[in-house]
Amino acid sequence: MIKVEGLTKRYARNVAVDNISFEVGKGQIVGFLGPNGAGKTTTMRVLTCFLPPTSGTAEVAGYDVVQQPMEVKKRIGYLPETPPLYPDMEVAEYVEFVGKLKGMPTGDLAAKVADACERCHITDVRKKLIAKLSKGYKQRVGLAAAIVHNPDVLVLDEPTAGLDPEQRRETLSLIRQLAGDHTVILSTHILPEVEQTCEQVIIISKGQLKAIDTMANLDRRLRGAEIIQVEVEARQGTLGRDTVQQRLEQVAGVQRVTFREAKGQRLAFDVEGTSGQNIQPDLARTVVAADWNLVELHAAGLGLEEIYLQLTGAGAPANQGGAQ
Ligand SMILES: Nc1ncnc2c1ncn2[C@@H]1O[C@H](COP(=O)(O)OP(=O)(O)OP(=O)(O)O)[C@@H](O)[C@H]1O
Ligand SMILES: [Mg+2]
Prior knowledge:
The chain contains eleven helices and 14 strands. The protein has helices at residues 40-47, 69-75, 91-101, 109-119, 135-147, 165-178, 191-197, 215-223, 241-249, 280-289, 304-312; strands spanning 2-11, 14-24, 29-33, 55-60, 63-64, 76-79, 153-157, 183-187, 200-205, 208-214, 227-233, 254-263, 266-273, 293-299.
């Protein structure tokens, strides 16, 4: 649905987007991540025909953003970082105005406007002046304007920035409802939002693509060896930390055991196994055979924050930073 190939955008001598390529399939919801100045907004502006690329191509629903911008605009809804609202228009009046600009037929325009307002939960303020709305409501009006023509693709630039937790939750649930019918690409700096909402993530840094993959694949790719978190409980006077650690180290397939913390009688360890080898059953047997209580045993994922920091941080290892 979205196909970007070798996209580069230069502002004077500054390269904002540097030769990035990615594809997003129909109905997917993709998180677009990167530090400030990474090139997210620039990429989105190219996809939505607001900026021409310096080189490379971008296609939306099979139409080229440079060759066929009218076709692209019909199929794309864009919520910019700051939605371009007219403060002295009423809410529904503005959404209708945007619908007309997008060339929607006038016959069912009123019904489509009402539907967009309903989906964005702004029906109760449809007669209010935009100037009198709170930031969260303004954001919803921007979203209603982005979806009024029922576009195939939605490009949302930090749709939840500045919203309170309740509004954020509502906006995200709305976005999740929209995915499926629509392909959604959304940027945000709030990583848990991406973990909860997106199937795929695209990570860029300094204009360069660092990764495009599912969360699970990124986790697997970056983690290398599997980490198992083990927590055991001492029976009175039975065990010292070193004894536990040594026994765990002797389990086949274990590469390293690191002590994490002591919580009263409980001891927590991170056990690094050999990639592709399931060491959990043997770890469990060892703990039980030694007559300790097994409190917890599970494989630990990296979490998006760690993945993100590895790929965008100063210490990002070069061999893991490559795009696929
Ligand atoms: N109109 C412009 N003229 C010159 N340089 C620009 C312009 N817009 C953006 N840039 C530069 O392009 C680079 C990418 O900016 P962009 O706004 O795409 O980043 P971003 O990933 O959206 O960042 P943020 O998370 O802060 O929104 C930055 O170095 C920025 O300074
Ligand atoms: Mg931006």
